[in-house]
Design goal:
By secondary structure, the protein is of the alpha/beta class. The protein has 2 domains: 94 residues, no CATH class; 120 residues, no CATH class. α1 runs parallel beside α3 and α6 packs across α8. It is built from 8 helices and 6 strands; from the N terminus they run αβααβααββααβαβ. It is elongated.
Length: 232
Amino acid sequence: KVAVVIDTRGKEFLEEAPRMIRDLREQGYQIRILFLDCDDSVLIRRFSETRRTHPLARGRPLLEGIELERSLLAELRDMSDVVIDTSSYNVHQLKEAIESQLEVSASDRLQILVQSFGFRYGVPSNTDMVVDVRFLPNPYFVEELRERTGQDQEVAGFVLGRPEAQEFLQRFQDLVAWLLPLYVKEGKSYLTISVGCTGGRHRSVAIAERLASFFRDRDYKVSLIHRDIHKE
């Protein structure tokens, strides 16, 4: 899928756009046009509030520039599949209106970063949620696990095999699964979840790995970072 934005600043492209769209449709391509419109009075107010100059109003009154713009875009408007009146929308409502037309799912709209860390080295500053998993038994005190990490099967089994770990994961995953669509609705595009234990090597790594898998299984775009996994 390809999205193209057209306005009156691309004069030559604008003049050719209707013909190109007709040609592509005749060749069997599925072309869908969303046209963003607005009342003249609202446009005038928006230009006044932002103190920006209308590209077609240089040397002429703003309203004349808007009227000229309407005439230049009239053919494209007539060809449009959907006309969205933005007069009463704020930026978040406009984003939601466009995405509803494009059938964009919540998982396509939100990118999730899961990062493990050690409280010993400080809480990450770039985070939305901090999860403290120091309530779980620490593999550090098991000699054969001490030098390994939460990415190793034996350590992950030690951490995740506990009933309290399973209950925590179920409760936290249920909470986040409920929250994610609400974040998307409010226009949030990025979510960072930081999982911390004492040193950032065992418990937080195992839990972060499991959370990342949970989000990936639901088709979210997920990045995973183990910030302190190689620190002493």
